[in-house]
Structures are given as C-alpha cells and as structure tokens.
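U., I forgot to send this yesterday:
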Amino acid sequence: MINKDYILRLAEQIGYEISILLRLRKRNQYEDELLAIDNLLLKYTGMTSRFINSLSDEMLLQSLSPLGKLNVDAGLWIASLLKEEGAAYDALHNSHESYYRYTKSLYLLLELLYQEHVPFDSELYQETTDLIAKLTDFELPEQLEPKLFRYYEQRGMYAQAENILFDYLEHHPSKDMLEAGHAFYERLQKKNTADLELGNFSQEEVLEGIEQLNQFTI
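Result:
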C-alpha cells in the first residue's frame, strides 16, 4: 500500500504545477498550456506528450513497469497531466484528442489504485470519478473495461461492476473475463445482505447474475 503521507506530498507537488496550468486555461492560453504540460511531462517522467500518446495503454503501462510494478511517481504525473491535457483539448473543442487523454489517464489511475491498494480517502478516487464522468457519453476502449470492472468491485460498487461485466462479454467475448465473472459472483455469495445492499445489490441479483453468466459459452 502507498504510504498516505507520500501520496499527499506527491499530490501537493502535482497540484502546485496544475494550478499554474489552470491559470493559463482561464486566460484562454490553451497552446501555452499544452506546451507547459509537455515540459512538465519531460521534466518529471523523461517522456514527451507526443511519445506518451503514441503508445497504446498496455505499452505505456509496460514502459512504466520495468520490474513488473508500476512506477508510482511517473504513473501519477502522467495520469494527472494527461487529464489536464484532455481538459485543454476540451476547451479547444477537440473531443477526439481529449477522449484519448482521458482514457489513458483513467487506465493508469485504475492500475495504480489496484496495484498499490490506495486508502479510500485518497483524492485519487475523486480524480478517477471525475474521469469516469467525463467519459460517460463515450464508448470505453476494450482494454479499459476489465480494469473498470475490477475497480467497481474493489470499491464495493457491485451493480456497476456487473453492468461492465455483461457489457464486455456481450461485445468482446473473452474466456478470461468469463472466468473473472464467475469468481466475482463466488465472492459476492460470501457477502452478507448488508454489504450487498451497500453496493446496490442483493442475494437475488447474485443468483440471477450467475444464471445469466452461465448462458455465455466461449
């Protein structure tokens, strides 16, 4: 688990840099903001925006995980700055470019929250919620949905996790996701009624979900 004080210090440093970016955005200096973001990425990660955005989400994650574990510093800087880059493109009415920044940022945040077991009171969860909200009206990339499924279960949001599970299986039949679904319902069967209700779920819905899942053959 990431040390809470460490996250706070890193978030404070990132927040200071983002406050400067926000001032540029408020003055409608979007090109200057994009240039500043590129300089910050190079300064704190050694990579430019162009290079980062040329990589697939999976390749980016691999490049940040040389020993099989995500580099928290670089991952958080990139996730935070890509989100701001997406906002700058939003302000320029370029939803195509903003979409890819938001999805890549969310991909990294979801992986970081999973690998590091970040405390639930961390601001990173609000950042994740904000990104999910920005992508509500868009179709999510295939590689993002399993991580979002895992995230919702991790947060105890079982109804949302189930929605992601069946949407994914319907559009991207996958043996791995099918097995993940069975394991998901096995875990839910061990939970009490109160825990399920907190996740907007019930024992009856668990049984219905298992029955529906059994109809998938891959």
